[in-house]
From TrEMBL:
The keyword Repeat does not apply. This is Alpha/beta-tubulin-N-acetyltransferase 9. One of its GO terms (molecular function) is tubulin N-terminal-methionine acetyltransferase activity. Gene3D superfamilies: 3.40.630.30. N-acetyltransferase that mediates the acetylation of the N-terminal residues of alpha- and beta-tubulin. It catalyses: N-terminal L-methionyl-[tubulin] + acetyl-CoA = N-terminal N(alpha)-acetyl-L-methionyl-[tubulin] + CoA + H(+). Pfam families: Acetyltransf_3. InterPro entries: Acyl_CoA_acyltransferase (IPR016181), GNAT_dom (IPR000182), NAT9-like (IPR039135). The gene is Nat9. Residues 32-178 form the N-acetyltransferase domain.
């Protein structure tokens, strides 16, 4: 999932709307803050992805550090992906620590349907074990969904999750997703949520506490941005 993009350039040619729209956006919630994925985050991310457990849960393969830097650059420029790094808000804001010291995971949106730019596939990874089961993934997912609806024009979400990842499946069902199919070959469950007016209002209510900031201004204040 991290590297596979079988339709590649053809998809990008069909989508003039670049996902770099979030490159200067920081979203601060109660537990998590979402920031764009920059080169400053790559080394920590690379350390996470050496974990066989995370490779299995994310259907990923281990990359070299240089490949990980190249992946970050390609994702930054890709018109079909929107990625935020998930930070611990308390550590990041109250203790004024650098991003790399506060990273707990990432959350992504993929535009996978060339016929329907309003459909977004969402993924959440809480890589730090000590942060799992504490509501960090739930808040990050809600924040990304809200951002997708308000900024990217998403009206339908899908989540594809390994059958063994019961905690993630349960979380998405609590966020009103419904199971629509099971792929026995890939051992994967697909869940879906269509954003009706009622669901949109519920989502906005769930994220009304979120504060939007200029990521560049925040990083300049902390000593300078990385790209």
């Amino acid at each position: 999932l991290r590297g596979a993009d079988p339709q590649g350039a053809a998809l990008r040619a069909l989508r003039p709307r670049a996902m770099r729209v979030n490159q200067n956006t920081a979203l601060r919630g109660e537990k998590v803050t979402l920031v764009p994925y920059t080169s400053a985050h790559v080394r920590r991310y690379h350390e996470w992805m050496q974990s066989e457990e995370l490779q299995r849960l994310t259907a990923s393969e281990a990359l070299s550090l240089e490949q990980e830097y190249e992946m970050q650059r390609s994702w930054r420029d890709d018109a079909d992906k929107c990625t935020f790094i998930v930070l611990d808000t308390e550590q990041w804001c109250e203790q004024a620590r650098g991003d790399e010291d506060c990273m707990v995971g990432d959350v992504n949106l993929f535009l996978t349907d060339t016929e329907d730019p309003t459909l977004g596939e969402i993924e959440i990874m809480i890589a730090e074990p000590s942060y799992r089961g504490r509501g960090f993934g739930k808040e990050a997912t809600l924040m990304m969904m809200s951002y997708g609806v308000t900024d990217l024009g998403i009206t339908k979400f899908e989540a594809k999750i390994g059958q063994e990842n019961e905690a993630s499946i349960c979380m998405f069902k609590k966020l009103h997703f419904k199971e629509v199919s099971v792929n026995s070959v890939f051992q994967e469950v697909t869940l879906r949520l269509d954003i009706s007016d009622q669901e949109r209002q519920w989502l906005l209510d769930q994220t009304k506490h979120v504060k939007r900031k200029s990521y560049m201004e925040v990083k300049l204040a902390a000593g300078g941005p990385e790209t």
